[in-house]
Design brief:
Radius of gyration: 27 Å
Distance between the termini: 60 Å
CATH topology of the largest domain: Alpha-Beta Plaits
CATH class of the largest domain: Alpha Beta
Structural class: alpha+beta
Helix content: 25-40%
Number of helices: 8
Strand order of the largest sheet: 2-3-1-4-5
Number of strands: 10
Order of helices and strands: EHHHEEHHEEEEEHEEHH
CATH architecture of the largest domain: 2-Layer Sandwich
Strand content: 15-25%
Number of domains: 2
Amino acid sequence: MQMNKLYLTFEGPSVGESGLPVYAFAHALTGLQDAMRLMVEHLGGRQSGPGQPPRWAREQSSLQLTAVRSGSLTAELTLEEVNGQLSFENLGEQAIESIYSWDGRQDSALPPQVTNRLGAIPSELPADVRVWLGSADTPLKTEIKRTSSAVRSVSQSEEALLQGWLREVNWHRGTAQLHDYTGSFVPLRFSEEHAEEMQRLARQHVEVRGHGKLNQKGDWMPVTVEQISSGRSWGEPFDMDEFLTDPDPKIFDPNNLVTASEPFDVDEFVNIIHSGRDEGGKESPDC
């Protein structure tokens, strides 16, 4: 089943009589949007740190409010299309299916950061309002119930697999930061065992394996490094710092240009290239 829509339905006497406060409605929609983004990041194998989420996660999780139905107030939220998105990158629909299949429990199969964010949705609603998650066919599929606190903290350590640029390595404190291309970062902690390797890989693109906890917003708190290795990202953008500190820069010297003699016969040059290829493709008579 492929889905591109989710529905939030608000029920209660105050909804029918006086509607729903705008701030509470906005809080609920933002909660579902955040849960979508966290689910996409989980499916993509990477959780962003504090700050601006990575662009790919924002693009593939972006929801649009496309309709509001009366009676029980129902908001229809549609996944925004991503221009040029490849089928195997379609994490948005996978995230919608995962959230739609949620059974409403905090200890469900969804990642804790996602259920925490969903569980916070009712926190700003009037006490007599219930909120449901569903689809067009089943708008009241799963009730999002109130928790004892607005957002439950995660007490258990989670396994982390992260990639990014290693920055701010402090040998004495055993701390560092793992940055993505948006400027967001995950704080790292490392023991003396990894200190030399952290210093060697400083300012490089790396892969980090370890454990850490997620805060109430679903962002990584300091991750303890258990393994770190060098890695290069295919989508790595131009790094000005790395360019400026390159120990072996490629310097353009106009005085050492290799130029063609005049006149230069392009056709003859192409014929020589083709002739060389043809000769190279023939078997040697001695073979």
